[in-house]
Amino acid sequence: MGNRASKSSIHPITISSKYSFSETQKALEAAIPPLDLTFQTYIAEGDYAGARAALEALPPLNNFILPPRNFTGLLLTIGEGGQAIQYEIGNPLTAATMIKYNLDIALHTPRRVLLRVDGDNVEFKVNALAPLVAKYGIPEVNAVATKLDAELTSTLRRVAGHDAPQ
């Protein structure tokens, strides 16, 4: 079996939104700030303590790519309708704490979150992280991945109108 992930290691999470596509998009982008790249300046200057401090100041979830990947126009280009935007969400310090155990874990971070219209439903889709990294057999990574799955799922549910903010 080696290091290949089996189909059983992929566990998609689907969260339907109570709002329109554009309302859900705006709510997600308001809830998850863009990634502050200040830490990269410190790294470029060789100031790793400054970089660490900048990373520690980041919120737990950040939007890594701005603008997000908008697949809507691409779908229309090939004659398909539908709305879809892909986000990369995570935290670079959290990712680094996992990949220090096994660099291959970087294949799973940051998290790709798809906001899409499926028929009449607006929904988020994301693959659960914990089952994807469980194959590495690293308890510390499994604990972080489980926490990240819960945090991302909670945020997406709140954005989609299912949970009140805490």
Report on the structure:
- This is DUF302 domain-containing protein.
- It comes from Xylaria grammica.
- With 166 residues, the protein is α+β, with helices and mostly antiparallel strands.
- 40% of the residues lie in helices and 19% in strands.
- It is built from seven helices and six strands, in the order βαααββαβαββαα.
- Strands 1, 2, 3, 4, 5 and 6 form a six-stranded antiparallel β-sheet that branches.
- A hairpin with a 2-residue loop joins strand 5 (111-118) and strand 6.
- It is globular.
- Residues 1-7 have low confidence and may be disordered.
How are the SSEs placed, and which strands pair?
Layout: E1 12-16, H1 21-31, H2 38-44, H3 48-56, E2 62-63, E3 69-70, H4 72-77, E4 84-90, H5 92-99, E5 111-118, E6 121-127, H6 129-133, H7 139-159
Antiparallel strand pairs: 1-6, 2-4, 3-4, 4-5, 5-6
Protein name: DUF302 domain-containing protein
InterPro entries: TT1751-like_sf (IPR035923)
Organism: Xylaria grammica
> By CATH's scheme, which homologous superfamily applies?
TT1751-like domain
Under CATH at level 1, the class stands as: Alpha Beta
CATH architecture designation = 2-Layer Sandwich
Distance between the termini: 43 Å
Q: Beta fraction of the residues? A: 15-25%
Mean pLDDT: 92
Number of helices: 7
Gyration radius, rounded: 17 Å
Count of spatially separate domains:
1
DSSP strand tally: 6
Overall 3D geometry?
globular
| Low-confidence sequence ranges | 1-7
> What structural class do you assign from the helix and strand content?
alpha+beta
- Helix proportion range: 40-55%
Indicate the CATH topology: TATA-Binding Protein
Order of helices and strands: EHHHEEHEHEEHH
The largest pleated sheet is described as: 6 strands, antiparallel
Protein name: DUF302 domain-containing protein
Organism: Xylaria grammica
